[in-house]
Design a protein that fits this description.
The complex is a heterodimer. Chain A is mainly α. Chain A has 19 helices and two strands. Chain A has helices at residues 2-24, 30-58, 83-107, 113-132, 136-155, 163-193, 198-205, 212-229, 237-244, 247-272, 277-304, 309-330, 333-364, 376-379, 381-395, 401-416, 419-444, 459-477, 480-495; strands at residues 60-64, 75-79. Chain B has two domains: 2-114, Helix Hairpins, CATH 1.10.287; 118-145. Classes of the chains: A mainly alpha, B mainly alpha. The A-B interface holds A 137, 140-141, 144, 148, 151-152, 155, 158, 162-163, 165-166, 168-169, 172-173, 176-177, 179-180, 183-184, 187, 190-191, 367, 369, 371, 447, 449 and B 26, 30, 33, 39, 42-43, 46, 49-50, 53, 56-57, 60, 84, 87, 90-91, 94, 97-98, 101-102, 105-106, 108-109, 112-113, 121, 125, 128, 132, 136, 139-140, 143.
């Protein structure tokens, strides 16, 4: 029995949330719909851990969907690379669902809660499918499943603030253009090679040199995914979408959505198009490297001048995505590994920060700005503690997860690009201390505006927050798990060429 | 013999006639998405943009003189590639879903803002933002007293 489950787990992990989302929408009871969502995300998380162990033993699991052999049929691939975003998505999905229990009813109409959970599961299914599939066109379908579901989720914030509708609309239009650009790229590649399977594409592209359709297809695919991953000039949809979405949704999207797209970007750059070195090198050094450096500073500076806390965190996400793409753009094994390390750590950090801010907002019952944070640290000590730990982790102080990713990133950049890049990285993380300190100062040092509010922190809300904070500290002390799997991933990505 | 060269050029341009149409449609669609301020028109532009991609895929699959891919018994018959058609069937479904969601959002935007013009809506948002800031300033001055 367990063998059968293991052998079918690459598809089960996608099918589980996909099917359950159809069931959840029919359930009228809000509590029951949350419970089913919780169980489903937990099962998804368990399967992803099973898959992690399988990958450690076999290093590659290939699943032929419907028993059609891979180059012709659709293939689902789990390997050292895809397991990292897979665990991030399913793990954060589970934690965010635990967290959503009390938060969701406070921000969304009672009648639409089960629908929201249905969309929630659909978004998770789409993201997981995005990561597991080994077929370039299938990837487009999952890209659209996840982005349409998250657009609808963002629009659910309209009860609290009507700007959510416009934010969702912009997210939809920009995302749809990005996905369509990706499809054009896939079409051009299909016209050249006659295959859609990623592994097969790599093999066939090796024989093709100096083809203009190849260059065009590559450009379309990369730009399409860059829109989805919110890489600097194409990030314009992200701050508004995260700021006006319901808080629980912001946690889920901020921690997982862009990570899946960044993984796809790494796949395109380092595995599908690996045979065309010149093209990749040119893109990395002349396009992605400068854009990432600009993103690091632009995101941080926008965050410093922002008053709305959720939007501030979204701007800082843009900067953090800059670090990840910077790591990819250096293009050595160590740097790509550091990109994956930061991907995992950033999911933990941003998940924790959004959770802390959300639970403060839950007690205040209004939009959270720098003003409304004043003095809350004393009334909410547990949440404040978690917030401070996650902030320090974001800034990259020792003993936190963020330090590990900065350490590996700086090591990789010194060894291949030189000191100037390491200096820029350090400078921008020092700048990020400004906006973090601004929030901590408001929370702890400013006099309280909210003396009337007697807050009793509820364990339902802070358990998952404490857990994610604990993980931030744990992976700061013993990062071997993340570091080893990231090195496995980068070895696999770059090893294909040899 | 310049006229032969010109003739060849025209015939090759005619040969890739479909691609011309595809890219003209693509640019029209993209221009509407970027250039128009009306939310409904943007969705129409997006639909045109996506349709051009459908046409691109269908063009890849077509072979001149090819028939539908049905087994007739004779092995020599030329047929068009069916796979792009199937892919586009999926893409059409995705496109319909995108358009439907977009239209639903436009309906909601229209009922809450009373307008679907981007300029109108951002002006209203700016007023909201200003009001909020004034409230915060009032709270602050009260507390400082």
């Amino acid at each position: 029995m367990i063998d059968i489950i293991i052998s079918h787990s690459p598809i089960l992990i996608v099918i589980c949330p996909l099917m359950m989302s159809l069931i959840v929408v029919l359930i009228p009871n809000n509590y029951l719909s949350w419970l089913i969502t919780l169980v489903t995300t937990f099962i998804t998380f368990l399967i992803s851990i099973l898959l992690y162990q399988e990958v450690q033993n076999h290093s590659l699991i290939s699943y032929a969907l419907g028993n059609w052999a891979p180059p012709l049929g659709i293939e689902y691939v789990i390997d050292h690379v895809s397991i990292i975003p897979l665990i991030i998505i399913s793990g954060i999905g589970f934690l965010a669902t635990v967290f959503a229990y009390k938060i969701m009813p406070s921000e969304i109409d009672k009648n639409s809660i089960s629908k929201t959970y249905s969309l929630w599961l659909l978004a998770i299914a789409g993201l997981i499918g995005l990561v597991t599939t080994g077929d370039a066109f299938n990837l487009f379908v999952f890209l659209e499943i996840s982005s349409l579901a998250s657009v609808a989720l963002v629009a659910m914030g309209a009860k609290k603030d009507r700007q959510a509708l416009v934010a969702a609309y912009n997210y939809l239009i920009i995302g749809a253009v990005g996905a369509t650009l990706y499809v054009i790229g896939v079409g051009l590649l299909y016209a050249i090679t006659g295959t859609l399977n990623m592994a097969d594409l790599t093999e066939r592209l090796a024989d093709i040199k100096n083809n203009r359709a190849l260059t065009a297809g590559f450009g379309f695919m990369v730009v399409g995914i860059m829109v989805k991953a919110a890489i600097f000039p194409l990030h314009i949809w992200l701050p508004r979408a995260y700021a006006y979405a319901p808080s629980a949704v912001s946690i889920l999207l901020a921690a997982t959505a862009t990570k899946a797209s960044l993984y796809i970007l790494a796949r395109i750059l380092f595995s599908i198009f690996l045979p065309s070195y010149d093209l990749i090198n040119y893109t990395l050094t002349y396009i992605i490297l400068p854009l990432s450096i600009v993103a690091m500073f632009a995101g941080t500076i926008m965050a410093i001048y922002e008053k709305d806390i959720k939007r501030l965190l979204a701007h800082s996400s843009v900067a953090q995505i800059g670090y990840i793409t910077l790591a990819f753009s250096i293009g050595t094994k160590a740097s790509i590994a550091s990109g994956f390390i930061h991907m995992a750590n950033h999911a933990l950090i941003k998940g924790g920060l959004f959770m802390a801010i959300t639970s403060m907002g839950y007690y205040l019952q209004k939009r959270i700005t720098i003003h409304s944070l004043s003095g809350l640290g004393k009334t909410m000590p547990i949440t404040f503690f978690c917030f401070v730990v996650c902030s320090l982790s974001l800034a990259g102080l020792p003993l936190t997860a963020g330090f590990i990713s900065k350490l590996y990133l700086i090591k990789a950049s010194i060894s291949s690009e030189g000191l100037w890049l390491a200096f820029l990285i350090l400078f921008s993380s020092a700048l990020s201390l400004i906006y973090l300190w601004k929030m901590i100062e408001a929370l702890w040092l400013n006099p309280s505006h909210n003396q009337a509010i007697k807050v009793k922190e509820s364990p339902v809300i802070y358990t998952s927050l404490l857990l994610i904070t604990f993980l931030n500290i744990y992976f700061g002390l013993d990062a071997s798990l993340i570091v080893n799997s990231s090195y496995n991933a980068s070895n696999l990505l770059l090893g294909i060429s040899k | 013999m310049n006229w032969i060269k010109g003739n060849e050029m025209i015939s090759s341009a005619m040969g890739i006639w479909n691609y011309w149409i595809v890219f003209i449609l693509m640019m029209i669609g993209l221009f509407i998405v970027i250039g128009r301020k009306n939310f409904l028109k943007k969705i129409v532009g997006l639909a045109i943009f996506q349709t051009s991609v459908f046409l691109l895929y269908i063009t890849f699959g077509k072979i001149t003189g090819g028939t539908a891919p049905i087994l007739t018994g004779s092995a020599s018959s030329i047929y068009s590639n069916p796979l792009p058609h199937v892919l586009i069937l999926t893409a059409i479904v995705v496109g319909v879903a995108t358009t439907a969601l977009g239209l639903a959002l436009v309906v909601r935007i229209n009922s809450t803002y009373g307008s679907i013009e981007e300029d109108d809506i951002s002006a209203q948002d700016l007023v909201d933002y200003h009001d909020q800031n004034q409230i915060f300033e009032k709270i602050n001055t009260k507390l400082n007293k």
